[in-house]
C-alpha cells in the first residue's frame, strides 16, 4: 500500500477526500429516522435502532469508517451472496442453476411462489438461498458445514472474528413458518437434490442468516468481491474471479429484493441487503462499502442504507452506465 501511495498508483488517490464525503453523508443521513427494525424475527426488534455506520475498503487496502463500525450485526440475507459463491465454487454454475433461476422475482423476498420451471427465482431471495444451503457440501456433517462456511466468511474478512447470534437464530427458527412453507413447496416440486433433509437444510439456512460481523469487516468482505475474489488485506484468493462475477451479476439484478430494478436504475452497482440492517455495495475493481442501520423500509431494505448510497453515488459516479 505504501509503495503504491509513493508511486501515486492508489486506486482512489484522493482517499482522504472520499473519507470526508463519507463523514458528511453520515452526518446528513444520521438525521433520517424513518423505518422500523425488522420484527418478524423477534430478536431483531431488540437491536438498538439508532445504530449507524458506514465503512469502506478499497481493492488496494485503504480503509475508512464512521459511526458504530465495530458493532456486530446479524448478516441475515447478506449471507445469500456468500453462500451462492461457495455453492458455485463447489459445483459450477450449470449444476447450481439446475436448482435455482437467475431472474428477479419482482416480489418480496419471502413470497410464496416458484418460477415457471418450479424452481426458486434466484439465489438472493429466501427460497433460492434455502436451495443454495442444500447444495453446500451435502456430504459433510451439519456442524462441519457450518464451520466450513464460517471459515469462508472469516477469510473474506482478512481473518476477522465472525460470530453467531444465537438468540436471533432461535427466534427466527421459532417464527419461520414462511420459510418452512417455502421449503416444503420446493420439496413438493422436487426442486431439491435427491436425499435433501429439509429440516437440516432449513436449520442450516437459519444458522447462515445468524452469523454476525462488524461493518468494518463487512467492507473488507465487499472489497474481496470487488477485487475478483482476492482479499485485499491478505492477498489470499478465496473465490475464482468467474464465481464472483456471476454473484455480482445476480446482486445487480436481484440483490435488493423488489427494489432491485429501481436500485439498478438509480444506483447502478451490485449490492445486497439483509433485514438485520446491512446493505453492502461492491464497486468492481475499486472498493467495497458497508452501510449498517437497522431501521427498514416496507421492502426490508435499510432506510439509511439506501439514503447514504444515493448520496454517495451522487458525489461519486459509480453507476456503471
Ligand atoms: O429468512 C429470512 O426471512 C431472514 N433470515 C432473511 C431475510 C432477509 O434478510 C431479507 N431477505 N432476503
Automatic annotation (TrEMBL):
GO terms for biological process: glutamate biosynthetic process; L-glutamine catabolic process. Its EC number is 3.5.1.2. One of its GO terms (molecular function) is calcium ion binding. Keywords: ANK repeat, Hydrolase. It catalyses: L-glutamine + H2O = L-glutamate + NH4(+). The keyword Lipid metabolism does not apply. It comes from the Eukaryota. Homotetramer. Belongs to the glutaminase family. This is glutaminase. It comes from Euplotes crassus.
Amino acid at each position: 500500500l505504501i509503495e503504491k501511495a509513493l508511486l501515486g498508483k492508489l486506486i482512489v488517490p484522493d482517499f482522504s477526500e472520499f473519507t470526508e464525503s463519507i463523514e458528511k453523508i453520515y452526518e446528513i443521513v444520521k438525521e433520517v429516522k424513518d423505518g422500523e427494525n425488522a420484527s418478524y424475527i423477534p430478536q431483531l426488534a431488540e437491536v438498538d435502532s439508532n445504530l449507524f455506520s458506514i465503512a469502506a475498503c478499497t481493492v488496494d487496502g485503504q480503509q475508512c469508517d464512521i459511526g458504530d463500525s465495530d458493532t456486530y450485526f446479524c448478516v441475515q440475507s447478506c449471507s445469500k451472496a456468500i453462500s451462492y459463491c461457495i455453492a458455485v465454487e463447489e459445483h459450477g454454475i450449470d449444476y447450481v442453476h439446475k436448482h435455482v433461476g437467475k431472474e428477479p422475482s419482482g416480489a418480496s423476498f419471502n413470497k410464496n411462489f416458484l418460477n415457471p420451471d418450479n424452481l426458486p427465482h434466484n439465489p438472493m431471495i429466501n427460497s433460492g438461498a434455502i436451495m443454495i444451503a442444500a447444495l453446500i457440501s451435502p456430504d459433510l456433517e451439519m456442524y462441519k458445514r457450518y464451520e466450513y462456511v464460517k471459515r469462508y466468511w472469516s477469510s473474506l474478512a482478512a481473518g476477522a472474528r465472525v460470530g453467531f447470534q444465537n438468540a436471533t437464530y432461535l427466534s427466527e427458527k421459532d417464527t419461520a413458518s414462511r420459510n418452512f412453507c417455502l421449503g416444503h413447496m420446493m420439496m413438493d416440486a422436487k426442486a431439491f437434490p435427491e436425499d435433501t433433509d429439509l429440516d437440516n437444510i432449513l436449520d442450516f439456512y437459519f444458522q447462515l442468516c445468524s452469523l454476525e460481523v462488524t461493518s468494518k469487516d463487512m467492507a473488507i468482505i465487499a472489497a474481496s468481491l470487488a477485487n475478483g475474489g482476492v482479499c485485499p488485506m491478505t492477498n489470499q484468493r478465496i473465490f475464482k474471479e468467474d464465481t464472483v462475477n456471476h454473484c455480482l451479476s445476480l446482486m445487480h439484478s436481484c440483490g435488493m429484493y423488489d427494489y432491485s430494478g429501481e436500485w439498478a436504475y438509480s444506483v447502478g452497482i451490485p449490492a445486497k441487503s439483509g433485514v438485520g440492517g446491512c446493505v453492502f455495495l461492491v464497486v468492481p475493481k475499486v472498493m467495497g462499502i458497508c452501510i449498517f442501520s437497522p431501521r427498514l423500509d416496507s421492502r426490508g431494505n435499510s432506510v439509511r442504507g439506501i439514503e447514504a448510497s444515493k448520496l454517495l453515488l451522487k458525489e461519486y459516479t459509480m453507476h456503471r452506465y
